[in-house]
Amino acid sequence: MLQCIFFLSDAGEVMLEKQMTGHHVDRSICSWFWDYVLSQGGDPSMFLCRVADVLTDYLGGLNEDVIKDNFVIVYELLDEMMDNGVPLTTEPNILREMLAPPNIVSKMLSVVTGKNSNVSTKLPDATASSIPWRKINTKHSSNEVYVNLVEEMDAIFNRDGILVKCEIYGEVQVNSHLPGLPDLTLSFSNPSILNDVRFHPCVRFRPWEADQILSFVPPDGEFRLMSYRVKKLKSTPIYVKPQLTSNAGHSRISVLVGIHNDPGKTIDSITVQFQLPLCVSSANFTPNHGTVNILADKTCRWSIGQVPKGKSPCLSGNLVLEADLEKLHVFPVFRVGFRIMGVASSGLQIHRLDVKNTPSEPYKGFRALTQSGEYEVRS
């Protein structure tokens, strides 16, 4: 049983408090919890992770400003998700029927009338179903299901160009438009590479524990079936090689970008961004491909786009230092962004997807996407 939920800001201050039971929990516990998490790295419970997922889905993000702008919606969602401290409804598809996501019109109406127009006056159809995340007698003109592998790569290269960290956070996203009560089974060719897996409530645990197979009755529409992490990868799909020389009040910088391991698919876009040191009074850059912009805060953004075949994009430029400086003492960190369609860089592969309890064989679509997360190259 969960007695209370506190939403803390980045500074550890209580932004929102929701008492779930008759027993009141004092706010002083937040100070202890904050210190404990920072020192011990404590993990939240599965339900708290679910709350975070639902709020992110509803509000398009989860941070201090979003919580403050949608205080009433957050409070009402917590009311629907818990009943006297016991988790009740955590499926976004059902919660949307009970409480519509916020929009500009609903916010204006709530200000003018003093009432929340997002709240439905009737219970969702799924409340009468034995499977709470799916409506009774779901009907679709289409009979199709799509499975997407979406991965983010975090990587750090040190000043010697050595890869010191590389891991992937991935999600199996499903978009289901299947009639009736379908029963799906999804298997991977290499499930042993997966770590830290988290599942949607529709997943049956025993088939996964026994054979690493995902067996489930899907919600209707889009949902995240599973998230995972793949650790200690040994290579990245692209390389970024910066070189920097500095003496006599001038510095020269060059950055070479290319495909490190050919993924077999087109890299849709690459961007390289870095912050010029405060001691740089002026700078000019010349790319052999793409465009360069220097923002007011001295952020340099090189937009490369697609990497041309047979040509490695290169950015070269000169930095002029302040008058009393001979050379740079602080070196920039290059942050790289990229997108690769059709490839899961972790190497995860879908073996097969079986669908039962449908009137006819549905159409099955599969897609993979890899994009950058925290990808840093230090110079």
Keywords:
single chain; 379 residues; alpha+beta; Beta-Lactamase; Immunoglobulin-like; 3 domains; 4-stranded antiparallel β-sheet; globular
What report would you give on this structure?
The protein is α+β, with helices and mostly antiparallel strands and 379 residues long. It has three domains: 4-128, Beta-Lactamase (2-Layer Sandwich), CATH 3.30.450.60; 144-234 and 343-378, Mu homology domain, subdomain B (Immunoglobulin-like), CATH 2.60.40.1170; 238-341, Immunoglobulin-like (Sandwich). Helix content is 18%, strand content 41%. The strands form five sheets. A nine-stranded mixed β-sheet has the order 8-10-6-5-20-18-13-16-15, with no helix packed on it. It has a four-stranded antiparallel β-sheet with strand order 11-12-17-14, with no helix packed on it. Strands 9-7-19 form a three-stranded antiparallel β-sheet. A hairpin with a 2-residue loop joins strand 11 (238-247) and strand 12 (250-259). The termini are far apart. The model is unreliable at 38-44 (pLDDT under 50).
- Tally the helices: 7
User: Structural class of the secondary elements?
Assistant: alpha+beta
* Radius of gyration, taken over Cα atoms and rounded to an integer in Å: 25 Å
CATH class of the largest domain: Mainly Beta
Taking pLDDT < 50 over at least 5 consecutive residues as the criterion, the unreliable ranges are: 38-44
Sheet having the most strands:
9 strands, mixed
Shape verdict: globular
The CA-CA distance between the termini, in Å, is 50 Å
* Helix fraction bin: 10-25%
Strands of the largest sheet, in order across it? 8-10-6-5-20-18-13-16-15
Could you spell the SSE succession in H and E letters?
EEHHHHEEHHEEEEHEEEEEEEEEEEE
How confident overall, as mean pLDDT?
83
β-strand amount: 35-45%
Give the number of domains.
3
CATH homology superfamily of the largest domain: Mu homology domain, subdomain B
In CATH, the topology of the largest domain is named Immunoglobulin-like
Question: Mind telling me which CATH architecture of the largest domain this is?
Answer: Sandwich
Number of strands: 20
